[in-house]
Design goal:
With about 375 residues, the protein is an alpha/beta fold. It is built from 16 helices and ten strands. The protein has a six-stranded mixed β-sheet with strand order 7-6-5-8-9-10. It has a four-stranded parallel β-sheet with strand order 2-1-3-4, sandwiched between helices. Helix 5 packs across helix 14 and helix 6 runs parallel beside helix 7. The structure holds NADPH dihydro-nicotinamide-adenine-dinucleotide phosphate (NDP), pyruvic acid and magnesium ion.
Length: about 375
Amino acid sequence: MITDEEIFDGHLGGKLSVELTAPLQTQRDLSIAYTPGVAQVSRAIAADPALVHRYTWTGRLVAVVSDGSAVLGLGDIGPRASLPVMEGKAALFKKFAGLNSIPIVLDTKDPDEIVETLIRLRPSFGAVNLEDISAPRCFEIERRVIEALDCPVMHDDQHGTAIVVLAALNGAVAVQGRPIEGLRVVVSGAGAAGVACTDIMLAAGVADVTVLDSKGIISAARADLNTVKAELAQRSNPRGLVGGAAEALAGADVFIGLSAGVIAEELIATMAPDAIVFAMSNPDPEIRPEVAHKYAAIVATGRSDFPNQINNVLAFPGVFKGALDAGARRITEGMKIAAAEAILDVARDELAVDKIVPSPLDPRVAPAVAEAVATAARAAGVVG
Ligand SMILES: NC(=O)C1=CN([C@@H]2O[C@H](COP(=O)(O)OP(=O)(O)OC[C@H]3O[C@@H](n4cnc5c(N)ncnc54)[C@H](OP(=O)(O)O)[C@@H]3O)[C@@H](O)[C@H]2O)C=CC1
Ligand SMILES: CC(=O)C(=O)O
Ligand SMILES: [Mg+2]
């Protein structure tokens, strides 16, 4: 049992600090690292801007950027309250990929201002991990930042999550010995994570995905859908279901919770035999795992205190390390698929109902993901 005191003590003063890589003991050290020596390096970069990545930390520095509008499942709690989460993401970059990372939280939700701010900050970092920015703004913001910056940019809640969900679903069906293509999947949540996870599953060959938002099934019959959801209605829900979670879950093989909502035990009870339940909302899963286990053969959450943790931490450190190692200008679909395969390959010989993906603490994961992503980047010709 972790106490509140332990939790707050663990965050006292934040979770990050800057360490020196240059000795600053002697007059000679200062003359090299600071003036006059530093001026020579600055002049060289002024003459050849590409040298900035060789002679500063920016080339391997990941900015973790949020506006605090969809923080975990806590919703729009603002930039300051988002900082413990963003520091945590930055700490995970360092721990698992050895990458320096800084949290940058923005006191605006305006897409124009967010994009403009990142363009202005571009000289300061080598990659951007967008985090906990709510839908539908997150789709436009990510697209515009990718277009504007010549460096790897990824909205983690979309693609980091999608990579790990694909790995976990492939892990679950490998344990059960059935093909992914025949699954009937229900995704609860049509936001950043729900839309991206649906798309990666459709691309992987899952034919029957039904998506729910807070008002029910995303279907062409709905008149209240934004553009993203209206387009989603065209490529999901192939049986034309209307209604809510009850209609979607009856006979379903897989439930994936990415909603911060709750799902009633009685509805999970209506799923098909050998059901798979990924209750991924943080910190509170859509259904408690011990309850889901009464009906489902495989149960996972996004949390660190239950088996089968499906969390984007399995993806983002290795994805960015691989992209930066390769000198990639952007992150392609192929790099994401390669990451999903690499995550699962790490645990392929150890798969079990309570181990459908490797543990986030498994030190093999980030290097394997990084290598696969770098190889995929070179193959796609997005390096250099
Ligand atoms: N385990 C992991 O690695 C990850 C987990 N998550 C979790 O997923 C959740 C959503 O995150 P994110 O996509 O970034 O958030 P967004 O704000 O982008 O989207 C939230 C979506 O959930 C929908 N929703 C809210 N309540 C319900 C409900 N009762 N039933 C069905 N849908 C509902 C919203 O509906 P509407 O559109 O109608 O408002 C919206 O579509 C969070 O809890 C987060 O912690 C996210 C990323 C990674
Ligand atoms: C894990 C994560 O990124 C989230 O819950 O938002
Ligand atoms: Mg997140």
